[in-house]
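Trying the structure run again after the queue cleared.
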Amino acid sequence: MGRSPDPSPRILTVSKKTDFVGRLLSDVEIRTPLPTAPLKNASLLEQGAVIVLMRHMTQKQAESSVESLRAVHGDWNETRVSQAQEIASHLKTSIRKAGVARLNELRSASLALKEYLQDVFQQTHGMDLEIFRDDLWAAGEIVNDLTVLGTTGGAYVLWLAADGAVPAHKGLVRILSRLDLMKPTTSSKRATESLEGLIPSGKELEFTITFHEILEGWTHPEEPIYMRVEALRKCTYGKKAHKDRLVYLKRQEERRKKEEIRRIAAEKKEAERLRKEAEREARRAEAEAKREEAARLKQEAIAKRKADIKKKAEDKKKAIAKRKADAIKKAEAKKKADAKRKADAIKKADAKKKADAKKKADAKKKADAKKKADAK
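Done. Tokens:
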């Protein structure tokens, strides 16, 4: 087994420190928008407000907005407790909208400023950052908790509080010692002395901002700064962090792949479950349809049988009625025929009687005529 790494930092030689610092000042990209120059006649609190607003507008607009709010409220605590819409009405931007439309455009800027002021109030129990000038070491701890301003934005304010010097504090000492640029210390005086040999002439602001950017970006959850700045991977701390990060990313990728496999398997299982459920539902629906069709056919058969029985009964009834009617008709016809035969018989008898009477009369007449003739 290999030896465990020496927990004590390995300090670089002066020339290597100078080269390392120079390269970092060149390679580290400052992603936090910062003023090209501080706002004149502004407090440290107001300088921080400019930085916060610059994330939503230009430096000139941010400075004009801070001056406008200062003139209107006079007390930044009043701004802190103001509504976002009221703050938005005093922000100086190129937006010409008014009312709700203006608030919607400037809502994020107004809320960011309110949150920054609330941050300051909670960490300092007041609305004044001038206390930074009295104790930069303690100020560094406060800046670390000003989450809205951020470490890099706070570094600019600390630089102003230090009157243009690099502000020594615990967080800065920690990152510099981990980068093998200085020994760890809890003494503000010793830290300041150690810093003197590291800072290129006239580069106090660049040094302050760069190393606070490194401090802030080291633990970035998505892209730690050592992943994008190769120079940081040259020191022991950076190498280890980079190696650990690669291991972490590899594990994350393996975990992601496993989760993807599980997800695909789960989706496949769910798809299979849904398919089977759909098949069961289709079979159930088919069976239900068959049952309904069978029930319908049965009802139709029953209805048909009933209709046939009813029709047969009606036909029988009609047949009986027809037979009765035919019998009545036949009887009436017979009755009429009998009556006619009787009438014809009577008529014939009458005619015969008349004929006999006429024949008898004619015979008598003939006899009378003969008698008369014989009498002559």
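The mean pLDDT is 90. Worth checking whether this holds up in the mutant runs.
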